[in-house]
């Protein structure tokens, strides 16, 4: 009997797990993420009555595919494991937070290729959602590595989605699809936002929206990380939050997200689910919880997955408490599959079990950090997005 449940492509492989686990900023995180998902039975064919999981190995990206965004000079260096010139390393950002590492070339090809594999799966009629937790590397630049990110997988996926067209209803040219990129990471999505800033002036196909912390000196520093003004590019949006952002604050902020989404009405959504804003992360900036109450990370992702139209890609990102990242992405996978796990679920006994002490449950609860996002500040945010949404609607009507 044919399985008619919508498919969720889960992009992973043993090879990807091995090379992603060598990433200097997140050593062994990939192994924790996929091992926990497997031990929670998320890969079982009968896990959810609503959606079925399609385990999908990533393809290696070709040089040409990576070169669609990254420069030849950058790729020539990072894809050659014998390169070791220190001056060139510095010029290409391969120092400090982005040191070279064993398997880096394989990592770049696989992570870039996995993002393109996710796009390919959305072209298939049986898949309306793809999940790629080793992706979401939103700081990588065209010509250099930055912020723990060596390959611009988000940008490569968005470029591929922008090339997809819809056949006309009868006669005439093909219809171009709209794609919205929404970033929930603690840090501003500078690599993605800069890549597409002011590129929608001729045709409003792509909109980027980053919710993040911004403060003097906080990485990454960019003028695009500020609240939009009437003179801003309405297709490059940012919503900066102050210290201690909690479920309450994200619930308020989500009204702005919905206002923009309604105006833009995307056909595709790429959702970067960085988890470094969760309580317990070493960054210690936000006080966000995993779920399920309104405004939580799980609630926000559920809104996109279950109430927004169109096809979606869920990506990973930041998250430096690896057991909590594994917890979060397992929970979000269960949401994507239409069968959310209880946050009281006990962590199964497996190789990494001791790392989930002391609770040994799936939950990542909020702490007691004070939320410094006052009602006055959030009123300012609301006002800015009410104005920019009006501008966006007017631009789209032309």
From TrEMBL:
Its cofactor is a divalent metal cation. Residues 25-334 form the Histone deacetylase domain. PANTHER family: HISTONE DEACETYLASE 8, HISTONE DEACETYLASE HDAC1-RELATED. Its EC number is 3.5.1.98. Keywords: Chromatin regulator, Chromosome, Cytoplasm, Hydrolase, Metal-binding, Nucleus, Repressor, Transcription, Transcription regulation. GO terms for molecular function: histone deacetylase activity, hydrolytic mechanism; metal ion binding. It is found in: Chromosome; Cytoplasm; Nucleus. It is an enzyme of class 3 (hydrolase). InterPro entries: HDAC_I/II (IPR003084), HDACs (IPR000286), His_deacetylse_dom (IPR023801), His_deacetylse_dom_sf (IPR037138), Ureohydrolase_dom_sf (IPR023696). This is Histone deacetylase 8. Belongs to the histone deacetylase family. HD type 1 subfamily. Its main location: nucleus. One of its GO terms (cellular component) is nucleus. GO terms for biological process: heterochromatin formation. It comes from the Eukaryota. The lineage of its organism: Eukaryota, Fungi, Dikarya, Basidiomycota, Agaricomycotina.
């Amino acid at each position: 009997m044919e399985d008619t449940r919508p498919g969720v492509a889960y992009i992973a492989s043993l090879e990807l797990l091995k090379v992603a686990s060598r990433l200097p900023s997140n050593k062994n995180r990939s192994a924790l993420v996929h091992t926990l998902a497997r031990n929670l039975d998320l890969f079982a064919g009968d896990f959810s009555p609503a959606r079925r999981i399609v385990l999908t190995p990533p393809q290696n990206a070709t040089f040409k595919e990576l070169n669609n965004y990254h420069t030849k000079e950058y790729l020539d260096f990072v894809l050659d494991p014998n390169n070791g010139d220190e001056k060139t390393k510095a010029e290409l950002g391969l120092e400090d937070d982005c040191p070279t590492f064993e398997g880096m070339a394989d990592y770049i090809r696989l992570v870039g290729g996995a993002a393109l594999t996710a796009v390919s799966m959305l072209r298939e009629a049986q898949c309306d959602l793809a999940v790629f937790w080793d992706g979401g590397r939103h700081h990588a630049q065209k010509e250099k590595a930055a912020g723990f990110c060596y390959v611009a997988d988000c940008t490569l996926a968005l470029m591929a989605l922008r090339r997809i067209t819809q056949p006309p209803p009868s006669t005439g040219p093909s219809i171009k699809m709209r794609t919205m990129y929404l970033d929930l990471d603690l840090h501003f999505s500078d690599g993605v936002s800069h890549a597409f800033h002011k590129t929608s002036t001729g045709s409003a196909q792509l909109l980027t929206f980053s919710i993040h912390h911004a403060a003097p000196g906080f990485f990454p520093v960019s003028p695009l990380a500020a609240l939009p003004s009437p003179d801003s590019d309405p297709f490059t949006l940012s919503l900066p939050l102050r210290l201690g952002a909690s479920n309450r604050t994200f619930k308020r902020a989500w009204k702005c997200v919905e206002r923009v989404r309604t105006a833009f009405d995307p056909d595709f959504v790429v959702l970067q689910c960085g988890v470094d804003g969760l309580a317990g992360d070493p960054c210690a900036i936000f006080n966000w919880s995993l779920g399920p109450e309104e405004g939580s990370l799980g609630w926000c992702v559920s809104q996109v997955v279950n109430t927004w139209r169109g096809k979606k890609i869920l990506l990973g990102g930041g998250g430096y408490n690896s057991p909590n990242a594994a917890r979060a992405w397992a929970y979000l996978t269960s949401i994507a599959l239409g069968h959310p796990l209880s946050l009281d679920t006990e962590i199964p006994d497996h190789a990494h079990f001791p790392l989930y002490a002391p609770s040994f449950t799936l939950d990542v609860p909020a702490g007691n950090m004070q939320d410094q996002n006052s009602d006055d500040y959030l009123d300012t945010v609301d006002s800015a997005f009410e104005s920019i949404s009006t501008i966006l609607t007017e631009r789209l009507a032309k």
